[in-house]
Specification:
Elements: H1 2-6, H2 10-23, E1 28-34, H3 35-43, H4 46-49, E2 54-61, H5 63-66, H6 69-79, E3 84-88, H7 102-107, E4 111-114, H8 119-127, E5 132-139, H9 144-156, E6 162-169, H10 171-180, E7 188-192, H11 193-199, H12 205-211, E8 215-218, H13 222-238, E9 243-245, H14 257-266, E10 267-274, E11 278-287, H15 296-299, H16 315-319, H17 351-357
Parallel strand pairs: 1-2, 1-7, 3-4, 3-5, 5-6, 7-8, 8-9
Antiparallel strand pairs: 6-11, 10-11
Helix pairs in contact: 2-13, 9-14
């Protein structure tokens, strides 16, 4: 447990915070990409310990949050079919579709199950040969290798009743989309350490050349996060823009070759819809034609399902960092964890859930004003 205690040491965290106060001479706007980092920042009050004029912006790095509502409704429709088992990670069961969520389908008699690994789905399929087993494959690059391996093994083991409804997204294209959007004012990024553990950080050099925005690979513990912020501020104050690695105990620039090979074997890049953001070119993965037999989108007649988001939900603005969760008029009123309007209020990595669970009900002010 050395790394847990070492990276939660309050004394060391405050030493870095003191240095951040010393070196910061002007307002800066930093975005932490990952929802897990958002929860750690809010839980530990890191954003409140920084200089007042450093604004931490919460990014779109919650895979549950960016899954479009139409795809949620497609999963709900599949789960309601007879002789079908819909399997998912737990976060997806509470995400609202247009009229219900997967928990309600389960309560109505649908066979909806939670797993901790997609490989468990193969065993479920083998134990239920008379049922169609569909895994709702959601995630960024972090979960892609395991999800790809489940499909790969299903083909190798000839498990015909297993398929995956794919909603995989990629980080570099969404950062490109954010940086090119005039309403998004981000001056530096904290990159998600677990994504970079899989893919490395070589892909981000071209974005830095294009936009001249510093990026720092960062972990999830308090000391990781303040060190990542410290490195980003040093770059900004010096007028530098490069990729730095504050998570070297886990991440190397080249990434994990075996994981990337598995992804490339099973997935092709594709355009992907992001909830509240829109379609981003080459920002996702779909199954390759060789694995079409395990593609739930092709096996079930649900592609026609299209839905509209609630007009009260400002998830898109929250995911783009244009609005803080507690600045949404519905936050804590029409939208709560018990009655959510959007995924960011129920996901364990959702920014709205972090603000609600840790009592951030007072609307944030713009530190630049």
């Amino acid at each position: 447990m050395k790394y847990i205690t070492e990276y939660r040491d309050a004394g060391r965290v405050h030493e870095v915070l003191d240095d951040i106060h010393r070196i910061t001479t002007r307002p800066w706007r930093l975005m932490e990409v990952c929802g897990g980092q958002t929860h750690s920042i809010i839980r530990h009050g890191i954003d409140q310990l920084l200089p007042d004029y450093i604004d931490m912006i919460h990014g779109p790095g919650c895979p549950v949050c960016v899954t479009p509502q139409a795809l949620i409704d497609q999963a709900i429709a599949i789960a309601a079919l007879p002789d079908t088992i819909l399997v998912s990670f737990g976060d997806m069961l509470r995400v609202p579709g247009s009229s219900k969520d997967l928990f309600q389908v389960k309560a109505e008699g649908g066979d909806v199950r939670v797993v901790y690994s997609p490989l468990e789905c193969l065993q479920i399929a083998q134990e239920n040969p008379d049922k169609e087993v569909v895994f709702f494959g959601v995630g960024f690059e972090t979960t892609a290798p395991a999800n790809a391996m489940a499909v790969f093994q299903a083909k190798q083991l000839n498990i015909p009743n297993f398929s995956m409804l794919v909603s995989h997204v990629r980080v570099p294209p969404v950062l490109d989309a954010l940086l090119s959007a005039p309403e998004v004012q981000v001056q530096a990024f904290l990159l998600a350490g677990h994504v970079c553990a899989v893919m490395g950080y070589w892909e981000y050099h071209s974005l830095i050349e294009k936009y001249r925005v510093p990026m720092v690979v960062t972990g999830f513990e308090p000391l990781d996060l303040v060190r990542g912020i410290q490195m980003a501020i040093r770059q900004l104050e010096a007028g530098r823009a490069e990729v730095e690695n504050a998570y070297a105990r886990v991440v190397v620039e080249a990434g994990n070759p075996a994981a990337m090979q598995t992804i490339n074997e099973v997935f092709d890049e594709c355009d992907r819809d992001w909830r509240g953001i829109g379609t981003i070119p080459r920002s996702g993965w779909n199954l390759k034609p060789a694995y079409a037999a395990h593609d739930a989108a092709k096996r079930f007649p649900v592609g026609h399902i299209q839905t509209k988001e609630s007009p009260l939900c400002h998830a898109g603005e929250v995911l783009k960092g244009v609005m803080k969760p507690n600045e949404c008029p519905a936050f804590g009123k029409e939208c709560t964890p018990r009655r959510p309007l959007g995924a960011p209020m129920v996901s364990s990595e959702g920014a709205c859930a972090a603000y609600y669970n840790f009592g951030r009900f007072e609307a944030s002010r713009d530190p630049a004003n």
